[in-house]
Structure formats: C-alpha cells, structure tokens
Amino acid sequence: MAAEKERILIVDDEESIRELVSKIVTHIGYEAIVARNGQEALGILRNKPISIMITDMKMPEMDGLELTKVTRSEFPDLHIICMTAHGAAYSYTDVVACGASDYITKPFTIDEMRAKLNRAIREKNLIRDITQTARPVEVYFHFERFARTANSSHCHQGIYLPHARRACGCRHRGSEGVSGHC
C-alpha cells in the first residue's frame, strides 16, 4: 500500500504565485492545494487534513501574520511557512512569534523550498512518533532537550515545547520545573 502524499496548502492572493508554488510543491512530490485568501484557507483547513500551510504575508483582508495567528490557535499541530517578497517588512522572529514554523523570502529556489518542506515533514513525523511511543513524562523531557539544543533557536522552543506539554498533559512553570502529574 502506497503512503499517502503530504498535503501542502498554498495561500496567496496572486494567482501566478499560487500556480508557481503549487508546481514546485508537486514537483517535489507533495500534493498541492491552493487558496486565494485567509478565509478560503481556513475553510480548507477545517475540511481537509493538511500537513503544512505556506502563506504569503501581504494579502488583502487577512494578511499572513493574522492568518498564522488564527491558524495556530485553531490547528496547533500544523506547520506554517510564511513567504514574502518584502523581507525587510517582516523578520524571522516576527513570524515565528506569531506561530509560524519557518519563513522563506521570494524569490526562492526549488532547493530552498524542498529543504523547508522536508524539514517541516521530518519534524511533524518526529513529533508524531515520539508522542505515540513514549510515556508522557519521557515525551516532555525529550522535546525540552531537543528544543534547548544549540541548533534550536529560542523561537523554536516556542514551537516544540507546546507539543511536549500537550503530549505529556502537564503544565510547565518555566525554569522552576513542571507541575501537574510530571
């Protein structure tokens, strides 16, 4: 039985960009689904399982930051990659603070997009595997250790630690340690 392709949702108000990114995603080997705006994207997310959302930052009505915030609150396990041609207007820390997993500046190469998508899929699978196989306390400490490694930025700690707390069912009090059943 063949593995189901990962679904990537591409959100951009410009049709040419949606088509281009969709072709790149399909070329890499994933299924591409497109949305013209944030509201359409939320409708798709509510009705189809999506692995990663790639969203443009500059869009009318609901920009990429707002879409990222809303999406993160409704779909906390979804990986979100923000893209923009306006690199100076948004910083990596801004988008990650709003809940994005990663950030890419247009124009980008196929190899750059492949690297971003493959990393997000690896992280999604790692989170799934750990939460399915480890005991709750082990899950928390594994994610905490992973999030605090030299290669993991402070921003990424905000992505991994919530997964750990959800899988563990505990509450974290920062440097004081864990409360709850841990």
Give an account of the 3D structure:
The protein is α/β, with parallel strands linked by helices. It folds into two domains: 7-109, Rossmann fold, CATH 3.40.50; 134-179, no CATH class. Helices cover 51% and strands 16% of the residues. The protein has seven helices and seven strands; from the N terminus they run E-H-E-H-E-H-E-H-E-H-H-H-E-E. It has helices at 15-28, 38-47, 64-74, 92-97, 110-133, 136-147, 154-168; strands at residues 7-11, 31-35, 52-56, 79-84, 102-105, 171-172, 178-179. It has a five-stranded parallel beta sheet with strand order 2-1-3-4-5, sandwiched between helices. Helix 6 (136-147) runs antiparallel to helix 7 (154-168).
List keywords for this structure.
disordered C terminus, single chain, globular, 182 residues, alpha/beta, 7 strands, Rossmann fold, two-stranded antiparallel ribbon, 5-stranded parallel sheet
